[in-house]
Known about the structure:
Blueprint: E1 6-10, E2 23-27, E3 33-42, E4 47-51, H1 55-58, E5 64-67
Antiparallel strand pairs: 1-4, 2-3, 2-5, 3-4
Amino acid sequence: xxxxxxxxxxxxxxxxxxxxxxxxxxxxxxxxxxxxxxxxxxxxxxxxxxxxxxxxxxxxxxxxxxxxxxx
Length: 71
């Protein structure tokens, strides 16, 4: 938890095409967005983003979609 938000680690980084500012979302039921995010920090093999949900609220949501088109 940083500044009241939950920092998530995404298993994709710059070597996979992820970049700072890239939008994405955590997949919810039926494949619909559970929570949107923006990548805040991108490294070669992983990235970080912040979400509003707590760690407990994220349980069971282990898939994400990155949107190369932006927000």
